[in-house]
Design goal:
2 domains; mainly alpha; 4 helices
Length: 97
């Protein structure tokens, strides 16, 4: 079994890479040009420049799909992009009489 020597520079580079990956996972510092796959409610409100009530309405009428995990709502970034481009449609079923 060969022995490898790890230098202080190796450890510092590893630490910086690890911190960068953690930040990317939590959405706090993704690499430039890359967006996180999932957004939280406050991020969606800031991106769309809407209020909490408007976001609730968009969820209720199915315009913006969401996933709830442990009491936190997450939104797919691609779905938000569709809303920004005007491609999203309400998923609410309307019954005609």
């Amino acid at each position: 079994m060969a022995t490898e020597i790890i230098t202080r520079e190796d450890l510092e580079a590893f630490g910086e890479k690890l911190i960068g990956q953690f930040k990317a996972l939590i959405g706090g510092g993704s690499p430039e040009g890359e967006r996180p796959k999932w957004l939280k409610s406050y991020q969606v409100k800031n991106l769309l420049k809407i209020s909490s009530n408007t976001l609730q309405t968009l969820r209720d009428n199915g315009t913006i799909p969401f996933t709830k995990i442990g009491g936190i709502l997450y939104y797919n970034f691609e779905d938000i992009q569709k809303v920004l481009k005007g491609e999203a449609q309400s998923k609410r079923i309307r019954l005609s009489r």
